[in-house]
Amino acid sequence: MTHYWPSLVGGMLIGLSASMFLIFNGRIAGVSGIVGRLMLSRAATNAAFVLGLLAGPVIYLAGFGHWPSMTITASLPTIVAAGLLVGFGSRMGSGCTSGHGVAGLARLSPRSLVAVLTFLSAGIVTVTLMRIIAS
Amino acid sequence: MNSRILRFIAALLSGGVFGFGLSLSGMLDPARVRAFLDVAGDWDPSLAFVLGGAVAVAMLGTFLSRRMKRPVLDQTFQRPTETGIDRRLVLGSALFGVGWGMAGFCPGPALAGLSLGLGPVFLFVLAMAAGMTAHDRYIAKASKSWGTPS
To answer: Which residue among A14, A28, A120 sits closest to B25, beta carbon to beta carbon?
Structure first.
């Protein structure tokens, strides 16, 4: 269980952030929406949220003395294809893991529940197929 | 202090808490994200704790916001207006899920992860921005007409 404490506390902080952004700024903390709007309008609030997001790992570094781990094994063409799909799909589906997954489920939105079940299933199928093909 | 500055500071703090939470949770690591999605393989359930913790706390915030006439620092709540479950939502989420599974990155962790200065993360974010732009420029209007009016 101790292995999961950082995940649980980290998750709760993500929920706290979504609550803060809603209560103070009146907005949904959905990262794909924030980035999409930032590219269209350069609104200060969206830019501030992204700046904070970038500062997150630096605060972690200051507190723990090392960067959070990021183990990247995917090939560069896979990364490009994945980025295109994530960007395109999150805009078409009006949200990603934060907007639908956290804020949407917290609002008990049926739309977000469908989105989350869809992207979780698609992700599970993709990872499973890639593992089978690789072996 | 003027309210525009306060809004900026509040958004900066929200983003900072989000980015720190992602870093602490392990969600920044694409290998762990993919291990969470690998339910039939060597499954790592930690992201279920991330999502569970996040949704539980965000529910409190949502509950509180519903009892407020307006947000603390702004005039109105900008809540999503769409309610229909349409092809756009399902197809978009499916494409997103395939990309998420392929590399283990979604928008939040990829953006926050830029701070580590790793080349593949920059490449992912550039491709993601291109995907978003492609959708918003060429598809947004066309695909909106697929949906059933809600």
So the answer is: A14
Beta bridge partners of residue B78, listed in sequence order: A27
Phi and psi, residue B5, nearest 5°: -70, -40
CA distances (Å), origin A129, targets A135, B39, B101: 10, 12, 10
pLDDT in tens, A49-68: 999 999 999 999 999 999 99
* ipTM reported for the complex surpasses 0.85: yes
Return the axis-axis angle of helices A5-25 and B46-66, rounded to nearest 10°: 20
Question: In angstroms, how far is CA A75 from the centroid of its own chain?
Answer: 21
Backbone phi and psi for residue A63, each to the nearest 5 degrees, phi listed first: -80, -40
Strand partners, A27: B78
Q: State whether A93 and B96 contact (CB < 8 Å).
A: yes
Residues of B in contact with A116 (CB under 8 A): 93
Q: Smallest Cα–Cα separation from A125: which of B100, B81, B8, B66?
A: B100
Of the candidates B12, B24, B29, the beta carbon closest to that of A70 is on: B29
